[in-house]
Amino acid sequence: YFQTFWGNVCQTCHQPNLHCFSCNRQLNQATLLQLPDYRITCRQCYSSAVFEISQQLIQLILKTLAHWNIRIKQPLSFKAVDINSLIKLKEQNGVLDKTTTGQCRTQFEIRDQAKKAISHEIIILFGLPQQYCLAILTHELFHAWLHENIDQDKLSPQDTEWLCDFIAWHMLKTIKSAPYWIHNFEHSMDSHRSLIKKRVSRLSPPLIIIALKRL
């Protein structure tokens, strides 16, 4: 038997190729919707799907991050793309991840023999439901903050991903997101073999920023 987060229990109806890309609901040919790339989505996720990243959404996230003393100083640009384009961008950076939802592409230059971030491009998939999109944007924006403020040699890739998920999780709780998206990020955080989470997982975002700056 197979049971989903949504309470569906069945013996023979589980078809991974007919899951909503965003929320993982089991669909059938009568209920699925097709996005312009090969992904399928459910009607609930499609009803709030984001195809262009609005300034209103960006400002909502940046205002909340600033309240937590997370301020990105270098120029930011945003772009929503199809999954094939995002996978190609990841592969160009040597990342083989077929389930990716976003990327932060930071440009660096050497100043005074130190590597400094000078701009960030945030790229995410189009067609994600609004609350999920907001969390992915928050995750990628925290990558940008880390690139500006923390020597990357001080954090492992697992630490970095856990921290970005943790900030996104707090964002979802702050906006009183639907429980599934909060659960989704809790599961993602649990999957990272991070050492730093044992030290900071009980801290609020402002206190995590203080702890990171002391590394």
Q: Compute the gyration radius: what is it?
A: 18 Å
Strand content: 15-25%
Category from helices, strands and their pairing: alpha+beta
User: How is the largest sheet built, in terms of strand order?
Assistant: 6-8-7
Give the strand tally: 9
**Count of runs of 4 or more consecutive helical residues:** 8
Low-pLDDT windows of residues: none
Distance between the termini: 47 Å
Shape: globular
SSE order: EEEEHEHEHEEEHHHHH
> Largest sheet at a glance?
3 strands, mixed
How helix-rich are the residues, as a percent range?
40-55%
Q: Give average pLDDT, whole number.
A: 90
Describe the structure.
The protein is an alpha+beta fold. The chain contains 8 helices and 9 strands. It has helices at residues 43-46, 55-67, 83-92, 130-149, 157-174, 179-191, 197-200, 205-213, and strands at 2-3, 9-10, 33-34, 40-41, 49-50, 76-81, 102-111, 114-125, 128-129. The strands form 4 sheets. The protein has a 3-stranded mixed sheet with strand order 6-8-7. It has a two-stranded antiparallel sheet with strand order 1-2. The protein has a two-stranded antiparallel sheet with strand order 3-4. Strand 1 and strand 2 form a beta hairpin. Helix 4 (130-149) packs across helix 5 and helix 5 packs antiparallel against helix 6 (179-191). The N and C termini lie far apart (47 Å).
